[in-house]
Amino acid sequence: MKLSYTLPARQRLVEIEDYFSLHASPKAAARLVDGLLAKALGLLKHPKKGRPEKLLAHRGKDHRSLNAGRFLIVYYVAGDTIHITDFFDTRQHPSRMRG
User: Fold this and answer.
1) Number of domains in the chain
2) Assigned domain for 35 exists
3) What pTM, to 2 d.p., does this model score?
4) pLDDT tier for residue 97 given thresholds of 50, 70 and 90
5) In 3D, which of 69, 65, 46 has the Cα closest to residue 56?
6) Helix (H, G, I), strand (E, B), or coil: what is residue 76?
7) Structural domain boundaries enclosing 27
8) 3-30 b/e with 16+ CB inside 10 Å = b?
């Protein structure tokens, strides 16, 4: 298995880091992003660990989401690759979820 981050997922990580650098501290932001990435890496051992993401079922890729504190790591598995599509802040409206 391998892990792939879509462009929207990488952009969301930058947004998260920028926001927390400004509203908390750069050190806290880096810890948060590192934690999200570490949690995503855990999917390599257990790719079906997350629950099915019903809000993205219409896309037909069997998206799943893994809880990471106030964030969801949104992903799907295709072949031997886990595609991370979003790091979704659960305080946002679900329609903003990227799949």
Assistant:
1) 1
2) yes
3) 0.93
4) confident
5) 65
6) strand
7) 2-90
8) eebbeebeebbeebbeebbeeeeeeebe
